[in-house]
Specification:
Layout lengths: L1 H25 L3 E4 L5 E4 L4 H19 L3 H6 L1 H11 L8 H31 L8 H16 L2 H12 L3 H24 L5 H8 L4 H32 L10 H10 L3 H29 L1
Antiparallel strand pairs: 1-2
Helix pairs in contact: 1-2, 4-12, 5-8, 5-10, 5-11, 6-8, 7-8, 8-10, 9-10, 10-12, 11-12
């Protein structure tokens, strides 16, 4: 059965490639004859090829995933029933949300601070205009790429296995995730700074650290703090679901409510989380405007 499935989808892929090749072959330039008798070749619009490729890609994806609109329509009543309960939150459940919500916020703050602090020196070493050692720059960028490849839940699962269940594992997972994101964005920002002051400091006898601290940090500090605030927003959302793998926070409460089919209680949890996330976004946006 597995071989049939493989051969079938391989055949579909080959047909897709052949169709694309056919479309590209048939797209000959349009020949226009002027009044003087001269001919001019005008390239045809690429919209036909783009639309054809898009239709083929969507058709292939629908076939491989088994997507069916009829199933969504049939299950529509269940979706509406669940949404109706979610939009009628159980207000008396709010006191039980406070403690895990505080854990979620604490994990987000501490994880963001640790990750952002560790990202700064690594971002400097991964910047090609500051560190001219190509091996070190390439190695650090590969490591950062691997860290960003891993989803937060996977990192939290590994941390939970190593450090046992609880908020400590969640904090470590958020720190690692934040480190990968901030270091990536920061070294790209460092590579765009004006190197004139940095080179002048080195010419006066300063080492790289002194030159970067005096000439580079003032240029990247607003961008660095903006990246930190952005990651803090993401971490509040991410930490809310880390409880699914035993990393503490609101995720445990959300998992419990779903397991008990208590969608009214789940609605209260999600409403509380929504208020906190929106409040943090407004505060973060205000601070970023001040920094810019």
């Amino acid at each position: 059965m597995a071989n049939i499935f493989t051969y079938k989808h391989l055949l579909i892929g080959e047909l897709l490639v052949l169709a694309v090749a056919l479309v590209l072959t048939l797209r000959k330039p349009e020949v226009i004859t002027t009044k003087s008798g001269n001919t001019v070749s005008r390239p045809r619009s690429p919209m036909g090829v783009i639309c054809t490729l898009l239709v083929l890609a969507i058709t292939w994806a629908l076939h491989m995933t088994g997507f069916q609109i009829s199933v969504i329509i049939q299950k529509g009543e269940k979706i509406v029933a669940i949404l109706e309960k979610l939009f009628r939150p159980k207000w008396e459940f709010f006191p039980k949300v406070i403690a895990p919500l505080v854990d979620t916020i604490k994990m987000s703050i501490l994880g963001t601070v640790i990750g952002c602090a560790a990202a700064l020196p690594i971002a400097v070493l991964a910047s090609s205009n500051i560190d001219h050692n190509k091996f070190v720059v390439s190695l650090l960028r590969v490591i950062l790429g691997l860290i960003r490849t891993l989803p937060t839940l996977i990192i939290a699962l590994v941390c939970a296995l190593i450090f046992s269940l609880g908020t400590f594992a969640g904090t470590v997972a958020i720190s690692i995730f934040t480190f990968g994101i901030v270091a990536k964005m920061l070294y790209e920002s460092i590579e765009t700074i004006d190197m004139g002051p940095f080179e002048a400091m080195e010419a006066l006898g300063a080492n790289k650290f002194q030159a970067f601290w005096s000439a580079g940090v003032p240029q990247i500090l607003p961008v660095y703090l903006s990246h930190c605030l952005y990651c803090f927003e993401m971490n509040v959302r991410a930490s809310a679901i880390l409880g699914y793998v035993g990393a503490g926070g609101l995720g445990i409460t959300i998992n419990e409510r779903i397991g008990w089919r208590d969608y009214n209680g789940l609605g209260m949890v999600l409403l509380t989380l929504l208020v906190v996330v929106v409040s943090i976004e407004f505060l973060s946006e205000f601070l970023r405007k001040k920094l810019s």
